[in-house]
Prior knowledge:
The protein is built from 19 helices and twelve strands. The protein is an alpha/beta fold. The protein has two domains: 234 residues, D-Maltodextrin-Binding Protein, domain 2, CATH 3.40.190; 204 residues, Periplasmic binding protein-like II (D-Maltodextrin-Binding Protein, domain 2, 3-Layer(aba) Sandwich), CATH 3.40.190.10. 51% of the residues are buried. It comes from Paenibacillus whitsoniae.
Amino acid sequence: MNMKKWSTIGLATSMALVAAGCGNSSTPAESTKPAASTAPTAAATTAATATPAGAKKLTGDFEIQYFVGGYGDKWWKKVIADFQAANPDLKIKESAGPKINEQMKPRWIAGNPPDFVYIDGPELFDRQMVTDGQLEDLTDWIKDAKNVDGEKIIDLLAQKPQEFDGKIYNVPFVMSSWGIFYDKALFKDKGWAEPKDFEDFLAVSDKIKAAGINPFIHTGKYPYYINGAVLLPAIVSANNNDYKLLQDMASNNLDAWKNPAILKGLNKIVQIRDKGFIDKASVQINHTDSQSLFLQHKDAFIPNGLWLPNEMAKDVPNGFDFGFIPSITQDKGGKVVANTSTATFAIAKKAKNKDAAKAFMQFVFSKTQASQWAELSGAPSNVKGDISSSKAPNFVKDAAKFLSSPDTVVVPTVSFAADVDKAMQDASVALTIGTITPEEWVKRVTDVVAKQKK
């Protein structure tokens, strides 16, 4: 998922990695009927019937494209059914599935896109879509746009929209975070404490190893997991909690890549490696295999995104209680670092029904729909609000608390160029098995950065 995805720019290699991280095996679907499953709740109906002042009656065809990955499609089915109930004269078509982005690509190229698009999963990169002139400029509209409850959308966002040359083309709805998962039930049974910092992590990992369990496993085939959940937070912590370094790195600033905080962050991985805490199976396995070993208690900690529990829902043992920590590499007394990732909503520049697309944008950015997203997808939304009383899973509530805490450094989504990101991934795998040093890691990556500058 993008989710859960790790945002990069351009190359098919990165697209394939993202697909592996958050895709599933369900069949792509195109439907002109929203799911008839769930009747709208009272709260949803109230939100559905509330419309912004002066809103037009919506008619005609309205097409929504959404990727189905680790977050599933339960929320989409529910919100579209609610929106349909509020707009009975609108004919809604869902273009959805794990391969929908690839399937819809020819239509985007031909200038016949859907009206509304969820930018997540493989084959969709917001920066490239903006460069190609495929997305509607929302800069002026979003400044004053209100949701169906009359609240300004921009004021509700935990993370503001990214700007491209001063313009806004997509609005973040999903607020996810990389982090470290563990089983609270196992830790309680063994008397192990949740680590609050790197010293704690090393100490409890010693106990875990002594108990015959591998302390740590990661996804060697897709190393952006360990980079997103371990390395980048470690670099931010080593840089006095200033995440601007990551942004400078992502902009291919060669001076930024000389910052000693990068070596300090890399050395945290070296310490985990040299203590024998990393499962040797990590280097050759994919995301689902590593997640399966974690669920079987072969391994105690795993770096991942918030989609993990939903993605593995069919394989979670009874009594397993997901615990989530955004980072474990901060020094004693240091702040937690949450390296976030977002998935966004946009309107096609050549949309045929922009009125319906904007109305749907106003509909989904309500606190009711945000709460339902957390409950049905297993990830927090980007809409501010307390979800402690919602039916969202406990690990989602834990993540939401971290993301809203003053003791957490919340890192805005950082996008590296595809070649640079691939070099970082390959170098991190080599570092985890000891074939290169941190200095060689930096050299490998900066060589690629230098080529990007030419």
